[in-house]
Specification:
- This protein has two domains: 115 residues, Ribosomal protein L10, N-terminal RNA-binding domain (Alpha-Beta Plaits), CATH 3.30.70; 45 residues.
- Helix content is 57%, strand content 17%.
- Strand 4 and strand 5 form a beta hairpin.
- Helix 4 packs across helix 5.
- The longest helix has 44 residues.
- It is elongated, with a radius of gyration of 27 Å.
């Protein structure tokens, strides 16, 4: 558990009380598809794994029944988004809190995180912003040249019909 926590960029703690076996299976499938880790662990075991790590401040969320631990390894947003997408379809699942950038976050902050663009979406936006000016410049250069070529083509066709 401690090794998984060290690798994770985002960790969320869930209260899964009332979840049916079918719902739990569906949750695990969605997490696996999103490349997000999910384990159900006793609170004492998670607290023990968190001792001496930056996650220790989030131990306040480890109360009550055993906790579902969601771990986002590659994309910090994927864990939150996948969890909140599932929460919309399953009323029993509750988010206790979590850890982002080695700081404890509450359920509201987890929800805010789920609404942010994913890492892939952010890269796409960044590339689009970088390529936007270059595309406009190319259009500005290509526009007048295209008009000149069009005028020459029209002129040559006119000359060809006169002969």
């Amino acid at each position: 558990m401690k090794a998984d926590l060290k690798k994770a960029q985002t960790v969320l703690f869930l209260d899964y009380t009332g979840l049916t076996v079918a719902e739990a299976t569906q949750l695990r499938v969605k997490m696996r598809q999103a490349k997000v880790g999910y384990k159900v662990v006793k609170n004492a075991l998670v607290r023990k794994a968190m001792v001496g790590t930056p996650f220790e401040s989030a131990s306040k969320y480890l109360k009550g029944t055993p906790t579902g631990v969601v771990m986002g390894f590659d994309d910090p947003v994927a864990a939150a988004r996948t969890t909140f997408d599932f929460v919309k379809t399953c009323d029993h699942l509750k988010i206790k809190g979590g850890v982002l950038d080695q700081q404890a976050i509450d359920a509201r902050q987890v929800e805010d995180l789920s609404k942010m663009p994913s890492l892939i979406e952010m890269k796409g936006l960044l590339i689009g912003m970088a390529l936007g000016p270059a595309g406009k410049l190319l259009g500005q250069i290509k526009g007048p040249a295209g008009r000149i070529v069009g005028a020459i083509d029209t002129k040559s066709k006119e000359e060809g019909t006169k002969a």
